[in-house]
Amino acid sequence: MSANIVALLYLVAGILFILALRGLSHPETSRRGNQYGMLGMAIAVVTTLFVARPDDAWTWALIVVGIAIGGVIGAVIARRIPMTAMPQLVAGFHSLVGLAAVLVAAAALYAPGAFGIGEPGRIHVASLIEMSLGAAIGAVTFTGSIVAFTKLQGLVSGAPVVFAGQHKLNLALGIAIVAIGAWFAATESHSLFWLLTLLALVIGVLIIIPIGGADMPVVISMLNSYSGWAAAGIGFTLGNTALIITGALVGSSGAILSYIMCRGMNRSFFNVILGGFGGETAGPAAGAGEERPVKQGSAEDAAFLLRNAGSVIIVPGYGMAVAQAQHALKEMADLLKKEGVKVSYAIHPVAGRMPGHMNVLLAEAQVPYDEVFELDDINSEFANTDVAFVIGANDVTNPAAKEDPQSPIYGMPVLEVWKADTVMFVKRSLSSGYAGIDNTLFYRDNTMMLFGDAKKMVEEIVKAM
Amino acid sequence: MSDPITVHEAAEQARAAAERALDAAEQAQAFADAAALAAETGAAAIGLSGAVDPFVYRFSIFVLAIFVGYYVVWNVTPALHTPLMSVTNAISSVIVVGALLAVGVSTGAALDGAATWAKALGFAALVLASINIFGGFLVTQRMLGMYRRKDR
Asked: Which of A20, A40, A152, B81 could form a disulfide with A13 if both were Cys (CB 3.0 to 4.6 A apart)?
């Protein structure tokens, strides 16, 4: 195959990847888009096999065995993983891309001939720079994603880890990495390459540990972006169009998602990545000590009100995911619809632990996607709604964001549930949310607190109907 | 002020250069294969130096792809942001291309353990990327299969 045809085939693969993302503009076209993505990947792999054209059976066996091992593991994971675990899964997958980038960069350093970038000891300087970029970003992605994974999986506390001089240390490490990268590009020393990689692995851990659990939507998006830039770095080393296009696509995709998540929290990107904000164990906020009257309802009260409502908007949050309440919720919604109640769902951009987390869980429970609305599309509806049913969400419904300029979340876009005639809160207790601030909504006259585990409470409401 | 003779000479040179550039352009038209070379000749004639480095072409593709990504991703419906992350993850495993090249390194002839190292690193990268390719696309497919419209 001529080099021109190879380059064109890689271009085709890149375009198919663009179409894969394009398909995601609507659920109806998304499945076809995903198939375009698979086709693109198949083209890229087959083309590369033609280029590499291994001449011994031993190498072919390695390739087949490698793909088979990875394929079986990947397929089993894809089939078994519960939808509530998607954030950790994505973080885990990002770490694999990061590590693969490091390994490929190292392989290119050891056998530059196979990649067409020169001979050992005389690799082109540009290639060395690209290689060190790919390896460094890949290494940061690898360890950063592993830390994110352990936080999301609950293997370590989601609370931010902060210590004195943290940012200075990170800055010093960053400068050291750049300096070693330059030195490596000048000398092609293998030990400098590994030193560079080692420092990047360390900094990957350091930049993620100060970020708290509920900021994970930003972290995951950011690591998504990094994995793309790492792939692009390797793409430059190999001069491979498919990799360059993909890296750019994934890099910008992750960056946009990070931006959307930050906007959803009304915080700057730097505010999030510098970390130290909140934690899963945030205690009750100041002033919460005083006893204020709260209206507490039972499942029977809730069932009665819901059945007699004309319209209900359900507001799910991370608590729904933790309690796995989405199926019970769907059952409740179905019963209500039978009674002639209009049911819709309102999703805040940062609800859950990754972008779109709630939508996937509702889709899993077979909630039709045309009943699920984004914040901007549904916020004006609350005023005409009888019951807002908040399940496992807190900060994203806090009126302080609109009314109290002193509040740390002032200015954050929130779902204006308080405008509904009645607000029901399914919650374990009155504790404050992730941001560590009290929600004044709990004490309002039109609020009914339903204390208990989200799933159990919804099941009891269903029974009471 | 400039000397009139020098101006005249400069004009002559420019004309000559323009003619050479014209020749170059004709060559480019005649031989598609020689296009790059002809452009180089033309460029040299009007005072630029050297051919465009392949890096610049790659960089152009990279920048354009960022723009494409920007517009395409803003069009993704927020309801599908989780599948977006899993599918971008799957396609970024096209890094498997590098892994395959590394596994394909021939170890028979060469002097050293370096080639063997490259092969081993490539194999590890191949396994990791394959997990991602199969896992990423299949889990995306599974998720997308769940999104249903209201049955009416």
From this structure: A40
